[in-house]
Task: structure prediction
Amino acid sequence: MIAMRYGTLPIVRETGGLRDSVQPYNRFTGEGTGFSFANFNAYELADTIRRALALYHDDHDAYCRVQRQAMSQDFSFTRSAEDYAHLYLLLLPEDTTPKHDAADEAFRSPIGALETGAAVRLALRTRRRSCSTPLWNSTAMRTATPSP
Result:
């Protein structure tokens, strides 16, 4: 991710977080943020390196576009927090949508709700557990969240 930020296109094996972080270059659509290969062997690695070098030498404009796409990726904690806040709010049952007025800034955006702890407290108060054994102690979590 750091290399992508500085314009170095990664060549990665598609495993774990690398599969999620590096979108393979597609020469037909121009999409992608790097180069990847699936299997752990020298032939696929060598082929991927050849494809990256060919793009650099034969179509440098396309290489620069991929480089800009890679540099524009957002791997910040703010984006991750927003994604989680959206997910948490989607998990709430529809009948527990928070009621608020225009002055309530905490619910203007999911990240604002998450920062204040309001969404977490609301989820703990309203979400019914679907499993027979609780996976966490909701009383402890409710008291651990900061008050608004």
Summary: Residues 42-58 form the longest helix (17 residues). Confidence is low (pLDDT under 50) at residues 113-148. The CA atoms of residues 12 and 18 lie 7 Å apart.
